[in-house]
C-alpha cells in the first residue's frame, strides 16, 4: 500500500488539491493519504514555513501530491519548494506540454543554477550564485536521455555563448547523449523559446538548467491553453513530488473558480510513477472527455467551478471503472 503525502499549500492549493486527492482516492482506494502543512500561511502563524519534522514526514511518503505555495518578497522567508527540493534531492523537474499537435517534455535541472540558494545582500547590491556542476549536469542529462531514448530526440537549451557555466552543461549533456545513443542538438535558450512556440512539432525532449527551464516551460503553456493545464513532477532517487505548474493565485483563492486540471494531471503523473499507468491513463482520458463535453472553468471560457469540474472528472472515472 502506497503512502501519499498531501500538501495543499496556500491560495488555490486548498481548492485544487482536494479535487485531485478525491480522484486519486477513487481510482486507488488502497492508497494511504496523510496531510502535511507547509507554506506562507503556516509561516504567518508559527514563523516557520517548513520545519525539520515536516521534511521527515515528506521523506516517509512514497509520493507527494503538492499544491501551490506563496513566496512573499520577504528576506526572512525561505522558499518552501527550494527547501524541499534540496532536502529530498529532487533533481529532475519534468513538465509535459501536451495538447493538440503538441507533445513536448521539458526536463529541468532542479537543485542548482540560479536556484541554488547561495545568495547574499550588501549595502549596494544583491548577489545570487549560479551553480552548474558536472555531477548535477550528468544526472539530469542521463534522466533526459533515458526519456528521449523512448521518444525521438533531445534538445539542449543553453546560453553557452555568454555563460561559461553553460559551456560545461552543454559539454556534459552532449557527451551523455552520445554515450546513450540519443540524437541531440544544442540551441540558445532565447532563440529556443521563440522557435518552440512557432514550431512545436520540431521539439521532443528539452533539457536545460534551472531558471531557463522554469521560464521555457511556463512560456510553452501558451501552446496548450495556459498554466492551469500543466502538471509537473519533481523526481529524486528516493522521493517524488507532483504539483501543478501554476502558482497560489491569492487573487482568486476561495472563489471556486480555479482550474483544477493541472492538479488532476499531476495526480495522474503520480499514479504512473507509483507503477499504475492504466489508472494514470484513465484519469487523463477522463479530463479530456470532460473538456470535450464543453465543461470548462472560466480561464478556458467556461462557467464550471473548481468543484463542479472535479465532480465531472470523478463521474467519468467512475464510469470507466464500471
UniProtKB/TrEMBL annotation:
It comes from the Archaea. Belongs to the isocitrate and isopropylmalate dehydrogenases family. Residues 3-313 form the Isopropylmalate dehydrogenase-like domain. GO terms for molecular function: oxidoreductase activity. InterPro entries: IsoCit/isopropylmalate_DH_CS, IsoPropMal-DH-like_dom. Keywords: Oxidoreductase. The keyword Cytoplasm does not apply. This is NAD-dependent isocitrate dehydrogenase. It holds the Pfam family Iso_dh.
